[in-house]
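Hey, weird one. I pasted the DUF7716 domain-containing protein sequence into the form twice and got a warning about non-standard characters only the second time. First submission, copied straight from the form history:
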Amino acid sequence: MDASEFPPDSNDYLPIQVKENGWIKLFDGATIEDIIENTKAQLTAPSLEVLFKALIYYYENDAFIVFPKK
């Protein structure tokens, strides 16, 4: 089951750690995939640190990061 199968005001579909730790949803899966795909298109093998930097950049700027060309 996923969120679409629950009433709009329900959070019963969330894992316990999400509820207990106050996590919030920043991106949907498609947006995360787009950010990763864009980063990989610019860099051959981006590290997790670089991918995280790309996610943070997108969150702060609502735009894909542009990495300098080597």
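That's the output from the first submission. The warning seems to come from a hidden character in my clipboard, not from the data itself. The chain has one domain: 3-61.
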